[in-house]
Every structure is written in C-alpha cells, then in structure tokens.
Amino acid sequence: MAEPIPLPADPMELKNLEYRPVKVRGHFDHSKELYMMPRTMVDPAREAREAGRLSSSPESGAYVITPFHCTDLGVTILVNRGFVPRKKVNPDTRQRGQVEGEVDLVGMVRLTETRKPFVPENNPERNHWHYRDLEAMARLTGADPIFIDADFQSTVPGGPIGGQTRVTLRNEHMQYILTWYGLCAATSYLWFKKFLRRTPGV
User: Fold this and answer.
1) CA distance 159 to 2
2) What DSSP character marks residue 104?
3) Residues 25/69, Cβ–Cβ less than 8 Å
4) % of the chain exceeding 70 in pLDDT
5) Is the dihedral of CA 80, 81, 83, 88 positive or negative?
6) Residue pair 24/108 in contact by the 8 Å Cβ criterion
7) SS3 for 48?
8) Could you identify which of 63, 68, 109, 134 might form a hypothetical disulfide with 36, taking C-beta atoms 3.0 to 4.6 angstroms apart as the criterion?
9) Which residue intervals of 12-61 are DSSP H helices?
10) CA atoms within 13 Å, Cβ hemisphere of 30
11) Is 61 helix (H, G, I), strand (E, B) or coil?
12) Bigger pLDDT: 188 vs 39
C-alpha cells in the first residue's frame, strides 16, 4: 500500500485519488451517523477459506458512516468507520466504541457512486443507504462531500471493524463488446442491403 498523504485541501484533487491512502486528524460527530446496509464484513481470510463453496452465510450488518471534523483543514468529511453486525447498528449498543476527542486516522479516498441496476434507492428518512451518494449524505449531515474508508488500524474495542474497502476497478469490457457488436451489425446490414438484396426485374 502507498504511503498515506495528507488529505488535500482542494476537493477537486480527490477525483484522481480514489483508493489512495490519506491521513487526517480531528474528531467524530457520532450524533449524525449514517448506515450503509445491508453489508457483510470484508474478511480476506474467510473469503479465501470459502472460495469455491456453493454457499456461505457471512453475517449481515452495516457500515457506520460518521462525520469527522478535520482540525487542520477546518472541514468536515465522512468516514466509513467500518462494519458492525445488525444487532450492533444502534449506537446505544456500542457506546464503548464511540471514540471521543481528537484522533489520527488513515483511510482510503472513495468517490461517489451511481445507483446500479437492481440496487434499491437510498432511503435517507430511514437512514438506510445502499450506495455512496456523497452529495445527499453531505446535505443530511452538514459535511463536505468527501469520503474515506478508515483502515483496520482504526478499529477500537466495541467499535466498528475498519478496513472495509473492496477495490472494484472500472470494467468497460461490456461497453466495448456492445460497441463492436453494434458496428458489426450495422456493417452487415449495409453490406446485405448493397450486395445481396436484389430488386425483382433488375
């Protein structure tokens, strides 16, 4: 993993920094938690053990997204503190893990997401978020539309389990396939029209 850099002061710089580790210092505002759910915990060891199995049943829960005021930058960002099981979504059940005071954090920059087919709409009224809509999350919490996934080292006893980053690089293969098949179909049609179709009597 690359060495973490200070979080840039200019949000525009973040567009080219997805998955880049950054470091911040500040404090959480636990009163405005958001919950991305349902989620399962990123656990490479478990996933390696269960690779190839027809079925597995990892525990379902949520990612806890908490506003974090950056002392040096004077801005509030959104931090994915990590995974909690469903029975621990209510913050009253994990008071021990609600970190108070200034802390240093390292996390990976994440950009906003667009809703994929078959993914439900976000429901801000119920505080159920199915994908990262940074503008909507920022409006609700008063934060800036800046989001990081806290690393595993941020985990504290009784709190969310950090390090919940799944790296998904853009896959444009389907776009290429559709483009080339479209061109092939158009060319075939024109070829058929020009050379194979004959008008009777001509």
Assistant:
1) 26
2) E
3) no
4) 76
5) negative
6) no
7) helix
8) 63
9) 44-49
10) 15
11) strand
12) 39
- CA 132, CA 111: separation in Å to the nearest integer? 8
Query: What average pLDDT score do residues 5-27 get?
Result: 94
Q: How far is CA 101 from each of CA 29, 32, 113, 136, 160, rounded to the nearest angstrom?
A: 10, 16, 31, 27, 17
User: For all residues of the chain together, what is the average pLDDT?
Assistant: 87
Q: What's the gap between Cα 165 and its chain centre?
A: 7
148 backbone dihedrals φ, ψ, rounded to 5°: -130, 150
Query: CB neighbours of 80 closer than 8 A, spacing ≥ 6?
Result: 36, 63, 64, 65, 107, 110, 147, 148, 149, 150, 164
> What distance in Å separates the CA atoms of residue 140 and residue 176, rounded to the nearest whole number?
38
CA-nearest of 34, 17, 13 to 109 is 17
Give per-residue pLDDT as tens, 61-71: 999 999 999 99
pLDDT class for 184, splitting at 50, 70, 90? low
Q: Return the beta strands (E) in 91-200 as ranges.
A: 103-110, 147-150
CA distance 117 to 181: 22
